Amino acid sequence: MSTGKTFLTLLLSAIICLAAPFALQAQDSGQGQAGSSAAGAPGPVAPTVPAQEPGGGLFPDRVAGLKAAGEIRRFSFDNLNDLVGDKAALYREYLVAAAASRDYAGARLDVFQTQNKFAALGLFLFTTAPAGARAATLSIGDGAAALPAGVVFWKGRYFVRVANPSGQPEPSKVALYTALARNVAASIAPDPWSATAPPLLESLPAQGLASASRRYFLGPESLNTCVDHGRDMFGFAGDAEAVMGEYQEPQAAGAAAASSPAGSSAMAAPAVKLVIVEYHTPQFAYDAMGRVASYIESLPEAEQNRIIVKREGNYIVEASGVAKREFAEALVNSVQYPYTVKWLRDPLLPTNDPFRVQKAAQMLVSTFGLLGLILGSVLVGGAAFGATIFLKRRKRQREAFSDAGGMLRLDIDPVETAMLGLPPAQE
Q1: Span 8-19, pLDDT tens digits
Q2: Which pTM does this prediction carry?
Q3: How far is CA 102 from the centre of its chain?
Q4: What total number of domains does the chain contain?
Q5: Beta bridge partners of 123
Q6: Alpha-carbon span 382 to 207, nearest angstrom
Q7: What are the start-end ranges of the H helices in 260-355?
Q8: Is residue 376 part of a domain?
Q9: Residue 113, SS3?
Q10: How far apart are CA 330 and CA 168, in angstroms?
């Protein structure tokens, strides 16, 4: 009976040991779900959607002495073509999420909200590209320019355009457009992030770079407007980005300076366009290089001779409009991919993880849970083995011995009495 109680006790202990890790895991899981909003919260990255949407305070009823001539019209990502026409695909490439427009007396104000400030800068550079060096620089927002058709500027995640409602250039109203733009820029909250330009722009060689020729692209449509065959040669897989600058050979620049009238720019017509497309993985860069090489092979030989392409790290570097290959090759070879390895933090310093105590507790619980599982398995296995041996031995003992009914009785009492000389028993 005691053996049966011992076996039952061992079995119950094994069940408790097996159930304990699962109970702890369930409790830990519940705590993890309760704290998931804190532990899984993203780090300090720039938000993709600004808090201030276009409209409201950016379109007062009266601004810079101008009275509003209509209501605010709002546009979403899907109906940008109602505001910019056939350029909607280009604006979508620059991550325009929403836009708004309002007419004033003699001016129209268009505000475009992008997902980040680099996209707003790219849209600004793309809009000022046709004017080039003829665009007068203004001190509004993070960057502004006076164009023949109006005034444009960018600040934070906003690109703003002030122009004639009819779309026709009116140089006489530039001062009016500038005053309106300054008032709108003052209403836009400053961006908290200090970076003002994409790091990729710094990869363009500074020597020989034509003024006002830098461009920043986020898609093939915008690139194709500035570079021949840009849409066909380059894909923008994996959120690739690209920059472009225009360069002129030193001899050509000297000749242009000698033949140009006084006051004109010697860099007015750069001969070479340098494009740098950055992919975020080596595999993307490898595939892109194969696509570019295949497309160049399909071009006529004369066009092939005017293009130089090189892969540098995750960069695809292209020089187009090449007249002198030595100059273009030196320009392409001067582009260096910035291989850098940086510590995110000093490994000798203690971690600043606010959840380190919780993680340590989880590790201890998991460790003891595993030990409990192993111990429980051993107990269950030992109990089962011991019970089997015990039952087998007991069965063998029952087979070797029987009860008293199967035994023989020898009646030797009379012989014993005679041998001892005892008187016979009396009845």
Answers
A1: 555 555 555 554
A2: 0.64
A3: 35
A4: 3
A5: none
A6: 81
A7: 282-297, 301-304, 325-333
A8: yes
A9: strand
A10: 43
